[in-house]
């Protein structure tokens, strides 16, 4: 049995094309390098199981970013409640 695997490749933005919202989110998170490492590994190996270190690094980066975002939102909420 032959498996085709994934055909993951990094997309190149064309002239006049809008930026993908997911790409914007990842870029703003500070985790773009980890994300691209996962994509490159997937393109090379065509098997997510061989890319677990890259997947874990991306997951860790996004988790840290989400924790920072939660802390920032909590601080803003506390500041807003003290100024009301």
Question: Characteristics of this structure?
Answer:
mainly alpha; 84 residues
Quick recap:
With 84 residues, this protein is mostly helical.
Kindly report the oligomeric state of this protein.
Answer: single chain
Number of helices: 3
Based on secondary structure, the structural category is mainly alpha
Report the sheet-strand fraction: under 5%
Radius of gyration: 18 Å
Helix content bin: 55-70%
User: How far apart lie the N and C ends?
Assistant: 66 Å
Describe the largest sheet.
none
Number of strands: 0
Shape: elongated
Stretches with pLDDT under 50, minimum 5 residues? none
- Compressed to H and E, one letter per element, the order equals HHH
Average of pLDDT: 85
Protein name: Cytochrome c oxidase assembly factor 4 homolog
Organism: Myotis lucifugus (Little brown bat)
Structure write-up:
This protein has 84 residues and is mainly α. The chain has a domain at 26-83. Helix 2 packs antiparallel against helix 3. 11% of the residues are buried. The protein has helices at 21-29, 32-45, 52-83.
What's the helix and strand layout?
Layout: H1 21-29, H2 32-45, H3 52-83
């Amino acid at each position: 049995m032959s498996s085709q695997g994934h055909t993951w490749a990094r997309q190149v933005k064309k002239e006049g094309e809008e930026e993908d919202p997911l790409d914007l989110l990842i870029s703003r998170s500070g985790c773009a390098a980890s994300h691209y490492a996962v994509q490159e590994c997937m393109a090379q190996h065509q098997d997510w199981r061989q890319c677990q270190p890259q997947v874990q690094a991306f997951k860790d980066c996004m988790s840290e970013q989400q924790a920072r975002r939660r802390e920032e939102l909590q601080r803003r909420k506390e500041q807003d409640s003290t100024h009301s």
